[in-house]
Specification:
By secondary structure, the protein is of the alpha/beta class. It has three domains: 181 residues, Class I glutamine amidotransferase (GATase) domain (Rossmann fold), CATH 3.40.50; 243 residues, TIM Barrel, CATH 3.20.20.370; 111 residues, Immunoglobulin-like (Sandwich).
Length: 663
């Protein structure tokens, strides 16, 4: 009996051991197929402080510490940095100062001074008086949601308080179709109401029937008030609107969101209107430009009507991923190929793509997404653990393949993103990525993020990260929204856009479709007809950087004398004729511009009218003839931007002095 019990106990021990072994084996097999993923430390970038004493007509004043201390939630965060993006995109060079770094030299040289909401309640009395005198002297002061003495000096009383904006109800001077387009812009902003208007003020934009942008005369100058949260509206439109605590919702069945989850409003998913750019251009040319001329660098090289930024993402073809570049170079175009590190790209293949003018960037298989790359960890064949291959490691591996030692463009594979609104930008900025192209409206097409241009991104504290996002406008596999031909035509007609066009090389390799292939080739012909360049991300970014690094300073001279017309004097004997000047008693308004162009192919635009007078002529350079200073005539070309009319002046590389006369 006792022996039976001992046998039973032994059998129980054996069964327990057997089941333990089974469990261990099962666990090992499970971990071998589904390893435990370790967390890794990654480098993220902090926000940066941008200040700059540029040779520019425009000065922006903002306080980074006040921005950092605002919030903390998204709706209460101060996004004054959006003003930097506005003027860099629409004009080019701009001076940027904080209240501590602002010098009187820069202030006095600026014809337009913008006081953002971050400094709305902290302008010292001494500076306030200088700003008031600056306006009286004929300059423009722009204030955003001012408070205290700043409001008393420049704006309406603001006693009705802040209200959430529902819709635009009035736009002054913007012509159709752009006026009707902009009236449909969804809002994510608050505006300040007043119980009485500013004396003599002219309303330029109204929200829910209340003046939200208005201008009042001050001596020879003008005070312009932007009484809504411009920064909030622009950041929500372009960088996307997260939850109050900066989280982004993932689609059902996933733990990670796609960039389409960032789109501010549902109606933007297939939106054909670049609302953010339209608002920026309205403020610069429709509001500020109503009171003073604002010369700007034309936004595309060679005076093109627009740019198509060609983008290809490859995770499988390797060297074959660059086959589209053969056709593109035949059509005077180039593109960016974003290759993943496991695509099979070789050093020789990368060198060929580079020699043909293509740019190579990274298709980043980000951790936490369905495409993440994992490095197994264990002993021998047993590897139950895995460590994500981070951005830094993927960039290092790609750089080893490239003929150059830099990668400036990236995209998260298949437009996946992160649960944290700004975290991917912080990771990329830490690795010196200059432009990301992850944002996409797929499966639709259009300006889902309000712009086709690369915009400056910020972190959760409203601080700039020193890199830009270039949203895809026409992605691979479009199933709804405007056609690419329609977007190009609208751009040529007046929107003048950058249109990022993504076509994955695999779509032709896996499913040969001659109709689709012919349609792809037809875009090059359409681009030529509509005067759009086809370029890559790196080249377009380099052009825009040159634009921002240039110089534009101007001044207006009223009652200037028109240049004298010159004719040869009558010949006397064999002596060569001396030139003599015909009298020109007629006066004009003169816009004198000093420009530094950092590269060839740049041009500036000036308004077609000034002080109610039409453009007469432009002269460039100064020479002395017969004791008088004279300059040569300059060819100018008509140009338009969302209904505003300009004259475009091609520039030589280097310094240019241009006199533009209106009569």
């Amino acid at each position: 009996m006792f022996e039976s019990r001992r046998k039973q106990s032994a059998h129980t021990a054996y069964r327990a051991l057997l089941w333990a072994l089974v469990l261990i084996v099962a666990t090992a097999l499970y971990l071998d197929n589904s390893p435990f993923v370790l967390e890794t430390d990654v480098e993220t970038a902090e926000g940066m402080t941008i200040t700059r004493e540029a040779n520019s007509d425009v000065l922006i004043v903002l306080d980074y510490e006040a921005i950092r201390n605002s919030g903390p939630d998204f709706e209460a965060r101060d996004f004054s940095v959006a003003w930097i993006n506005l003027f860099e995109q629409e004009i080019g060079p701009v001076s940027i100062a904080t209240p501590q770094s602002l010098s009187m030299k820069v202030l006095e040289a600026s014809r337009v001074v913008v006081l953002t909401s971050s400094v709305s309640d902290q302008v010292p009395d001494e500076l306030l008086e200088k700003l008031r005198l600056h306006a009286l002297d004929g300059n423009i002061i722009v204030v955003e949601r001012p408070k205290g003495k700043l409001r008393d000096t420049f704006s309406a009383n603001g006693r009705a308080g802040e209200r959430e904006g529902q819709k635009l109800t009035y736009l002054r001077g913007l012509v159709d179709p752009y006026k009707q387009e902009m009236m449909g812009m969804p809002l994510s902003t608050e505006f300040v109401g007043s119980t009485a208007p500013r004396q003599g003020a002219t309303t330029h934009l109204a929200i829910d029937g209340a003046p939200a942008i208005y201008a009042a005369p001050m001596g020879d100058g003008t005070a312009i008030t932007v009484d809504f949260d411009f920064g909030q509206q622009m950041v929500a439109l372009q960088q996307g609107r997260p939850s109050s605590d900066y989280e982004v919702d993932a689609p059902e069945g996933h733990t990670t969101p796609k960039t389409s989850a960032l789109i501010m409003a549902p109606e933007l998913h297939t939106n054909p209107v670049p609302y953010a750019d339209l608002l920026e251009r309205f403020i610069v040319h429709g509001v500020i430009g109503s009171y003073t001329p604002v010369p700007m660098f034309w936004p595309f090289p060679g005076g093109a009507n627009g740019a198509i930024v060609a983008l290809h993402e490859d995770t499988a073809l390797g060297d074959g991923g660059g086959w589209m570049l053969d056709y593109e170079t035949d059509k005077n175009g180039v593109s960016t190929l974003l290759s993943s590190v496991d695509s099979g790209l070789t050093a020789s293949g990368a060198a060929i793509i580079q020699r043909m003018g293509g740019e190579l960037g990274l298709s980043w298989k980000k951790e936490g997404t369905p495409h993440e790359l994992l490095e197994r960890v264990g002993i021998g064949e047993f590897q139950p653990l895995a460590q994500p291959v981070g951005l830094a490691a993927q960039l290092d591996e790609l750089r080893e393949t490239l003929p150059v030692n830099y990668v400036k463009t990236a995209r998260i594979t298949d437009s996946w993103w992160d649960e944290e609104w700004a975290r991917p930008f912080e990771l990329m900025a830490a690795q010196d990525i200059r432009v990301d192209t992850s944002y996409s409206p797929a499966p639709g097409a259009g300006y889902a993020f309000g712009t086709g241009f690369p915009f400056l991104v910020v972190n959760n504290e409203g601080q700039p990260l020193g890199m830009r996002e270039l949203p895809v406008v026409y992605p691979t596999g479009v199933t709804e929204g405007p056609e690419l031909a329609e977007l190009i035509s609208q751009s040529a007609a007046g929107h003048h856009q950058a249109i990022t066009w993504a076509v994955d090389p695999e779509i032709f390799a896996d499913y040969p479709d001659m109709e689709r292939f012919e349609k792809w080739l037809g875009v090059f012909e359409l681009a030529e007809q509509q005067n759009h360049i086809i370029t890559n991300v790196l080249r377009f970014d380099q052009f825009l950087r040159s634009r921002r690094a240039g110089r534009i300073q101007s001044r207006v001279v009223r009652d200037a004398q028109l240049p004298r017309k010159r004719r040869p004097a009558p010949q006397a004997g064999d002596d060569a004729p001396d030139e003599v000047a015909e009298p020109s008693p007629e006066s004009a308004t003169l816009l004198r511009i000093t420009v530094e162009s950092k590269r060839r192919g740049m041009s500036i635009t000036v308004p077609a009218k000034l002080d109610g007078k039409g453009f007469h002529l432009a002269k460039k350079g100064v020479n002395r003839i017969a004791g008088e200073l004279v300059s040569g005539d300059v060819e100018t070309l008509p140009a338009g931007l969302v209904g505003y009319k300009f004259r475009r002046i091609p520039l030589d590389a280097g310094f240019n002095t241009i006199d533009v006369y209106y009569r």
